[in-house]
Amino acid sequence: MTEIDWANWAATDVPDGTRLPETQIELVRPANACSARAVLFDFDGTLSLIRSGWVDVMVPMMVELLMALDTGEDEADIEHIVRQFVERLTGKQTIYQMIEFASQVARRGGTPLEPLAYKHMYLDRLWERIKDRVEGLKQGRIAREEMLVPGSLALLDALKARGLKIFLASGTDEKFAAAEAELLGVTPYVEGKVYGAIDDYKNYSKRMVIQRIVAENDIRDAQLLGFGDGYVEIEDVKAAHGVAVGVATDEPSCQDIDAWKRKRLILAGADVIIPNYLEHEALLAHLFATPATAG
After folding, report:
1. Residue 294: inside a domain, yes or no?
2. How far apart are CA 48 and CA 210, in angstroms?
3. Domain assignment of residue 36, yes or no
4. Over the stretch 32-86, which tens digit does the pLDDT of each residue have?
């Protein structure tokens, strides 16, 4: 697959797929998961909605700090610049957005903090946005289903029933991803630990997780199925010759396909695009159809 220039992805055309009859499932490329033995899920936006709206925390924080440098730039122009690199790096660990932000501070003559300091500043602000969701889940005031992409647990049940090993790899810090997966009832489905970001970011990536899963479980080409809402996990699953399902859900309602996500996921190599898991039976029937029954 051709490497995508993510800085200019918006100008790239994507193919139109075909809809699986009477569903919202878009078939972009031929895909068959009959040989799959393992399934990899991204977490935030793919299963969990706890951190939905994080962009509206990160971008204003960065704009605020850049405006404080008093460079004379228009706020709208700064916001455009910030949104561009935040979008470009979405799907990678949060620290990469903070590394780019630190470079933006330096370009304007400021003395940037360490990227990790900016990351912790952002996480503090994000916590203010999501703490009621987390506490609501802990106390039972909020049902798990309200904070999951619709149909998530039913899909996990169906995949487990097929004997597939399920793995979870998140760009969110590992301790948070693990705790939130537990709150949402996802942990019992997962093989081993929940993989997440660490401060030593150079020693963690979703690709490294995939390589470890493949090596430790003797997974071969075409034996991996992946679900994700970001381009990184889709690219990484395709690099492992797996089948990739792009979850282009329009958060927070998660009822329709988000056009922005759809385009990025298709460019990354997604074989199928879905808005949620409410039609998981039709999706799995297609992905696991034998050649004689595939439609």
Report:
1. no
2. 20
3. yes
4. 999 999 999 999 999 999 999 999 999 999 999 999 999 999 999 999 999 999 9
- 248-253: which pairs have CB atoms within 8 A and are 24 or more residues apart? 248/273, 248/274, 248/275, 249/45, 249/149, 249/274, 249/275, 249/276, 250/275, 251/45, 251/49, 251/52, 251/53, 252/49, 252/52, 252/53
Alpha carbons 56 and 146: distance in angstroms, whole number: 20
CATH number at residue 232: 3.40.50.1000
- Give pLDDT tens digits for 113-164: 999 999 999 999 999 999 999 999 999 999 999 999 999 999 999 999 999 9
Domain that holds residue 76: 55-139
Strand order in the sheet with 26-27: 18-19, 26-27, 272-274, 243-247, 224-228, 38-41, 165-173, 195-197
Q: What domain count does the chain have? A: 2
Indicate whether 190 belongs to any domain: yes
Amino acid making up residue 229: D
In this structure, the answer to whether residues 267 and 160 fall within a common structural domain is yes
**Would the pTM count as exceeding 0.85?**
yes
Phi, psi of 194 (to 5 degrees): -85, 120
